[in-house]
Specification:
GO molecular function, one term: nucleoside diphosphate kinase activity
Number of helices: 14
Subcellular location: Cytoplasm
Oligomer: single chain
InterPro entries: Adenylat/UMP-CMP_kin, Adenylat_kinase_CS, P-loop_NTPase
CATH superfamily of the domain at 116-303: P-loop containing nucleotide triphosphate hydrolases
Radius of gyration: 42 Å
CATH class of the domain at 116-303: Alpha Beta
Largest sheet: 5 strands, parallel
Order of helices and strands: HHHEHEHHHEHEHHEHHHH
Helix content: 40-55%
Shape: elongated
Protein name: Adenylate kinase isoenzyme 5
CATH topology of the domain at 116-303: Rossmann fold
Structural class: alpha/beta
Strand order of the largest sheet: 2-3-1-4-5
Keywords: ATP-binding, Cytoplasm, Kinase, Nucleotide-binding, Transferase
Strand content: 5-15%
């Protein structure tokens, strides 16, 4: 009991300790003696009435002032606030598809030679599709149009909320979501693992897409950039809209796509220039002239140490001779022996062989 009394004195520190002790002893009698006293008998908190809110203002009057009873007031006291409207293509659980989650996997078999990858980029209407098809046909490569890939996906999944939204985005001239586009490209590439080469038309559209492509797929072997004037692009887009009626060739979308291209083209070209991967061509010319330059560049860039990529290795004589001409397999070397005397001056010098080894030799035949 003495310990309990001391605890009470230390806890409350009363101004009149004698009076406090007398009240504690009286409580001991009420409890039935010292054996009923516990260590915290005199330190137990007593229930006290809290002071009123707002300096004497009652709870009812407080809410009456803050939330008036006017029927025109938009939110009543117990009304739930309206939800915040949020929507995300990539994070909305209602739109997620397991097959489209970005996973860490190899698109190409590491144990096999990777196909050559050529990216063809340029403004809308620059002739990317035409030139890409020509490149694929010449070298026997597979052709992938990223725009067509997305349009087919939208058409086949028209009831899907995610792709319905992507369709609206593309129709307004904006770029499709980056990860969605990369996923579609990866899935398409994995369907054609045995190709020697692949031409991808219309990708990437900006530097972010280029970096994502390199991180998740591979570094391209060559990037073909078709440079075309804005006026020529507009003319071609209007003509294509009349002929094909593509939904993304409407006037508003065309203007937006041209604006996006102008904003993204320069940094994208510089990005590939720093890597030494891009070759630029004037696409304002006739498509056959453009393709001639492209094929020459591809030959030099990708097939410099090999036979010609297209056509047979044997020369078709009918291409250079008229019918009735004879193909000669033996030659008269008498004139050549006379011509060799012109080199006698060089043979007398000891530096001829050394100079010859240092020289670039070009044969011109016809």
């Amino acid at each position: 009991m003495l310990q309990s009394l001391l605890n009470g004195l230390m806890c409350y520190k009363p101004d009149d300790p004698i009076e406090y002790l007398e009240s504690c002893l009286q409580k001991v009698k009420e409890l039935g003696g010292p054996e009923k006293v516990k260590w915290d008998t005199f330190v137990s908190p007593e229930k006290k009435t809290l002071p009123p809110l707002n300096g004497g203002q009652s709870r009812r009057s407080f809410f009456r002032n803050v939330m008036p009873d006017n029927s025109n007031f938009p939110y009543r006291r117990y009304d739930r606030l309206p939800p915040i409207q949020q929507f995300s293509i990539e994070s909305d659980t209602d739109l997620s598809e397991t097959a489209e989650l970005i996973e860490e996997y190899d698109v190409f078999d590491p144990a096999r030679p990777r196909p050559k990858i050529i990216l063809v980029i340029g403004g809308p209407g620059s002739g990317k599709g035409t030139q890409s098809l020509k490149i694929a046909e010449r070298y026997g490569f597979n052709y992938i149009s990223v725009g067509e890939l997305l349009r087919k996906k939208i058409h086949s999944t028209s009831s899907n909320r995610k792709w319905s939204l992507i369709a609206k985005i593309i129709t307004t001239g904006e770029l499709a979501p980056q990860e969605t586009t990369i996923t579609e490209i990866k899935q398409r590439l994995m369907q054609i693992p045995d190709e020697e080469g692949i031409v991808i038309d219309g990708f990437p559209r900006d530097v972010a897409q280029a970096i994502s492509f390199e991180d998740q797929i591979c570094t391209p072997d060559l990037v073909v950039f078709l440079a075309c004037s804005s006026q020529r692009l507009k003319e071609r887009l209007l003509k294509r809209a009349e002929q094909q009626g593509r939904p993304d060739d409407n006037l508003k979308a065309t203007q937006r796509r041209l604006m996006n291209f102008k904003q993204n083209a320069v940094p994208l070209v510089k990005y590939f220039q720093e890597k030494g991967l891009i070759i630029t061509f004037d696409a304002d010319r006739d498509e056959e002239e453009v393709f001639f330059d492209i094929s020459s560049a591809v030959d030099n860039k990708l097939f410099a140490n090999k036979e010609a990529a297209a056509g047979s290795n044997e020369l078709d004589c009918s291409l250079i001779m008229d019918s009735g001409d004879t193909v000669y397999t033996e030659f008269d070397f008498e004139d050549q022996e006379e011509d060799q005397s012109s080199f006698s001056g060089y043979e007398s010098t000891g530096d001829f062989s050394e100079d010859l080894r240092k020289s670039n030799i070009i044969f011109v035949v016809g």
